[in-house]
Amino acid sequence: MYRFLATITIAILLFVGCSQEIDKIEYNNELKNNENNVDENPSGFSGSEIDNKDINTEVDKKPVESNYKYVIDTNKSIEENIDNILKNMSLNEKIGQLFIVDADSLNNGNTLTNITDNANDIIKTYNPSGVIFFKNNIETINQTYDLISNLQESSALPLFISVDEEGGLVSRIAKNPNMHATILPNSKVIGETNNPKNAYEIGTILAREISSLGFNMDFAPVADVNTNKDNEVIGVRAYGSDKDLVGDMVYNAVQGIQSENVSAVIKHFPGHGDTTNDTHTGSVVVNHNIDRLREVEFIPFIRGIEASVDGVMMAHIKVPNVTKDDIEASLSKEIVTDLLRKELGYNGLVITDALNMGAIANEYSAQEACVKAILAGVDILLMPIPFEESYVNLMKAVNEGVITEDRIDESVKRILTVKINRKLFEEHIKNPHEVLGNNNHKKIIEDINSK
Questions:
Q1: What is the CATH number of the domain that holds 43?
Q2: What residues are labeled active site?
Q3: Residue 289 lies in a domain
């Protein structure tokens, strides 16, 4: 029902409020000349005002679905290509680029393993920036490769096809024996070798194998410093408890992953290593002050930034001795903009952790959380469920002046920059049967495990 209501509402917004039409024939809008400061919040909006408004469902009209494909000119600069794409994008398409949705959301919440008419329609209608796969979406090599190829074919802009593939405990692909991928060790094992070159080697293998299937974004490596022995959420997923060792490992893992044109996303800023509770189920508080974060938790993230990491994932933890309010880091302007962007100098993609996790879902509606995150300076909203309602709410926030279109453009520019840099607009043909679990990869892992 929500998808029906959301679709209708978008039509109303297109009719009464949108300055641009979805139909590519009418894309003649000009980019605004002035740059918007991410700090700006002209109405003092918190997120809930729009969330609580009634949705008018009187008009039954579906957004236009286009077979249009954006292309880039390799003879032009990245900036020129981005400007050319932006001036032809509707507000609807820009809003869509702020979302990475889970694959099952393209299939009415049911497991998606093959392209469906519904999945095709949703991609063409909402234009999400990407899709995240989980283990239920990954059955066999051919099935996964074909599903990814078909999803990309449906999209006007190339999709981020993402996955949590850290190696060891969190391995959506390698844990499926049908994929015969190389089995990689937990990050703790790599850290114990005390050789950052091993993090590079494993990052390269990991990215080479998943990219052969069509994945181009990996939510890895973990950049948390595991300083709490009771931390079962991070634990062996971290490289260790020494901030400098973890930093060296993160730097090398990022470079290894991105050497294969897969975007690395380090996580979970501002640091999830000294926790005992789990943000998947509820609120988590870290009581460290800013001096402690600068001394320990920030170090691996700084090293990841030095390695030119494409993405940083925000944790849903609260840090009340750092922020002026009791709000999760993923929704906090003080954390996202003041610390990560300004103090650490990071200008890449900022991505929320999954917005259906208990730490957020127990406190906010998906619509409210998405608006708060964008106002905080986040670029990509990961897995708000249902994402259609959040899409509608962001559209309304822009139309009502709560969020400026210039602010949306800032994030879309960062997204397009990564998509161009990682060559997502170019065709890549690999044979995953030859790449996954090949003997060279296995030999490298055997050597690392023996040390």
A1: 3.20.20.300
A2: 280, 353
A3: yes
